[in-house]
Each structure stands twice: as C-alpha cells, then as structure tokens.
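Hey, I'm writing a tutorial for new members on how sequence and structure tokens pair up, and I'd like a real worked example in the thread rather than a made-up one. If someone can provide the structure for the chain below, I'll link this post from the tutorial.
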Amino acid sequence: MSTTAEGHDVAQRKTAPTDDFYPTSAMWAGVDRLLTDYAELQAIDDVVIAYSPDSRDSAAFVGFACETYGVKVSYVPMRPLQDSGFRARLAEAAPRTASATGKCVLLTFEKDTMSHHGDIRAHFSDRDSDRYRVIRAINAGADLFETGLALGPGELSAFNATLLERLMVASALTIRTQAGTDLRVHLDNRRYQYISNRGVAQPRQFVIIPAGEVATFPASIHGTLVADFAVNVNTIYNDDVRLEASPITTRIVSGQLADFDCPNPDMDRFLRHWFGRRNAKRVGELGFGTNKAVERAVFENSHLNERVPGVHIGFGQHNQTNALAGYECDIHIDLCAKGGLIWFDDDPEPLDLDTIAPSSQAHPAMARDEDVFSEEIQAQDCCGLLSQSRTCGI
C-alpha cells in the first residue's frame, strides 16, 4: 500500500506494467524538445525542478539534461496535494526577485496530481511575465518524454488552429467513427469558450504537458459515442484504462448520458459508481485530440490518452465557469475514441482527424490555452478526488 499526502490509502496497481526508467533515444529527443521548444531555455536562465516522490526519475532525467546545457538547476521535492512547507522551499530555490539576467523556468513533475497551483501562482505574482515560465507535467514518466513530447508547440498549435478555424464558425457538427460513434452537436460560439492546449507559453499562464487538444462545451449533443481508445478520469483508477479490447458504448440524449454498455466488469463497476454522483452524467466537454505522436493507449490513467487524434466526451466537470455551464460537478470522466470524421454544417467534405493538416494561419487568439485550471476555482490540484478513491471502495 501507499498513501496520499492526506494519509489515505491508495491501492497499488494490480497488473501495472513495470515502471523501470531506462532513457531511450526517443526520450532524450523529448526532453530536448521540452527544454528548447517548450521552455525556450537559454544559458542565462535558471531552472527549478519541483517533483513529487513518484516522479524522482523524471526530475533527475530532466535535471541531468539541463546540466549538460550548462544551466543551473535547483530541486524542490514536494508532497502532492498537501505540503505546508512547499512554498518556503520554492522561495529558497527561486527567489521572488530574480538576480539573473535570464528567466526562471519552473518545471513540475507528478504522476496522478497537479498540486500547489495557488502557491506557484502566488510565488511568481510579483515577477514580470517575461522573467519566468512554468511548465507543469502530469503523468510524468517515460511515455511523457517519448510520446507526449514527440511534437513541439509549433506543430501542435498549427494542428489546433486547423480545427479551430472550422469549429469557431460552425453551428452544427456530425461526428462519426469507424467503431460506431455517431453524434449530432450544436455549438454556441458566442457563449462558450474554446480551450486549446498546445504547449505554447502565454503571459502569466502555465504550460500544461502533455499537450495537443481542442475542447469546448456543446450547446446540445445527442447520439452514440463508442469509446474504443481509453478512459481518463480525475481520480485514481489503478487498473488498465485501455478500451481497444472492450469498447464502451454510450447513448447520449439531450446532453446527458442515458445509458452505457461496458464489457469490462471492473471498469463497469468503477464508472457506475462515479456516474452516480450529482451531475456526473451531464456532458461537460466536447474534446478533440490533435497529438499525432499518440498512436497507442497507455495502461495508466493518463492525459496522454486524451491527446490521441479523435473525439472524446467529458462527462461531469465542465470546462467553462459554473455560471455559464449552469451546474458544477467534482468528477470528470473522459471517454476517448480514436480517429473519426467531422462534418461542419452543410459542408459535404468532412475533416478527417487522422489526417488533419497543419494550418498556415495564426492560431486564433480567442481560445484559452489552459486545460486544467479554471480561473474561478483556485484548486490545489486537478485531481481533487484522489483522496476519496480508497474510501469509496475503488
């Protein structure tokens, strides 16, 4: 058994793959892309690496790469979720008033959580926005470096722009996949905001990795979603989330989950439990993955699985303000399908998510870049149900 920072037991994965950390050439390429393209690291910059106990290997891997560039590195260990000493350790490693001529780059690595958001934002609140950059990694590990960072922010931004150029002028969508997904969606682009996670740094915003997604809140949605790739949920699930061998078929009526069929009994029990929470059956997100490097689902509950080119529906927690969406929910359940075609309004030519081409135009400025934190909810982590996973019998 292991425990969260709050002292709750968390069961170890029953059949998890080995987590030996042996850097490959693809992983080295990923960490190089992280430092050069995402962090835009320069020799005059300072790097601070904050890491939870489950991500020591990732922190050491990136730190070693920084040192080979001749860049100063400081390390800040942190407990996930609750750590009363984190802010002081961060202040010691990254003084609020920078003395260097470059910027401070804070890299954070965690497995299942993304903690201390408020502490980090407060720490840098007095620093000019061009003097620091915060890059936050969830699901840190070999797959993040090898696959999640195989594409740079410029490439992901161009793919996202292609989708947004079509979505932001459309009012109706038809979405179909070979596995049987058939959805009808209406959009209200004057009311609901788009989120574009693309790994591009914006002033006073955090970069969230792995990147590669466009999402919004559908004004209405109904039809069938066949999730044949993976599940991603903002709580602990210790077993295999991959769905290729056991796709989940859902029926959506008037923006709500009407029923679903899941042939995997463990997953079925898990989903039925969490769909029982208040507002958990409401569709809170229509999302499209755009990271072409993601070709196979990973075993672990991971944001990487959301980034696969395809459609995913997020049930429960939404990506707007509570006032705008009209409800609140503390669970977010993403059911992800791979690939698919999107028809926009009356255009007979669909967009194929498997072969989406990069846009030559600038990324639309109206889309929000963050996909984990809402400005109205200064949560300590994006997985707030972590501590409840054991007490609910999961």
